[in-house]
Specification:
This protein is α/β, with parallel strands linked by helices. It has helices spanning 23-35, 71-76, 78-96, 102-112, 127-131, 157-167, 169-172, 219-230, 245-256, 283-295; strands at residues 12-14, 39-43, 116-121, 136-138, 141-148, 154-156, 177-179, 183-185, 206-210, 234-238, 261-264, 277-279. Helix 3 crosses helix 6 and helix 4 runs parallel beside helix 10. It binds zinc ion (ZN). Zinc ion binds at residues 148, 150-151, 153, 199, 201-202, 204.
Amino acid sequence: MPDPAPLIAVNSVVSPAPATLETAALDALHAFIERHPRLFVLTGAGISTDSGIPGYRDDNGAWKRSPPITLQEFLGSESWRRRYWARSMIGWPTVGLAQPNGAHRALAQLDAAQRVGALVTQNVDGLHQRAGSRDVIELHGSIGHVHCLDCGAQYTRASIQPELVARNPAVAGALAEPAADGDAHLDFDGANAFDIPACAACGGMLKPSVVFFGENVPRERVAAASAALDAADAVLVVGSSLMVYSGYRFCAWAQQRGKPVAAINLGKTRADPLLALKVAAPCAATLEALVARLAA
Ligand SMILES: [Zn+2]
């Protein structure tokens, strides 16, 4: 084991200028990684913004615009479901065509170098897997999949898109600002006209295979992530404000279990008071610099 590194500043916030990553921040992160060879990496929306996928929140953790749909709204109202699928039809290409960025690739390189014990993501965009990370735990599911709430049949989201477009040609050409998780800020007044496809197998209700707000993360998924945390030496948060409890809890559990938590995130996080190290810098530049250091 390397010596305990004096460079780690407990409860310090290192805020480099955006254009350059300060050597001190990189030194501290490098030392943290060397001291804790098995990392539990937890990622959030901030890692995918460089891939063109908008996040939900601003730098202060507040909603950028209206909050996303809840499970109760989706299940309880045909008009909410029409609104959801109309916005999804417009927003899907943004996430469906998105490519991994340098941060995803750097984490895949850390994984290949046996430095990542577990990669748990709050994102539903599948970009970690496409960058080459293995055994990713998708806490909130996958926007690339759809399932039937009645018979359980599973579909790819890509296979649903042509059907949505074919049934709703008037809406399909609409332009709208992309939003998080394949959503779009569509000013939509056709709530009673939008035609939602049903399950091809049974005619049942289709739902994207993601955990909506107001919906619990499946128990077995939490258990798998908790076991991965037990096997890890430390937590590295990348690109998350941790405002949602389903992600924040791993930091709280890490503290209870005596494992230090570091974070790379522009803006504040809910876990700031318990962080051993905070690097307030862009994810991709930071992780790419880290990987270059480790390879040197
Ligand atoms: Zn079905």
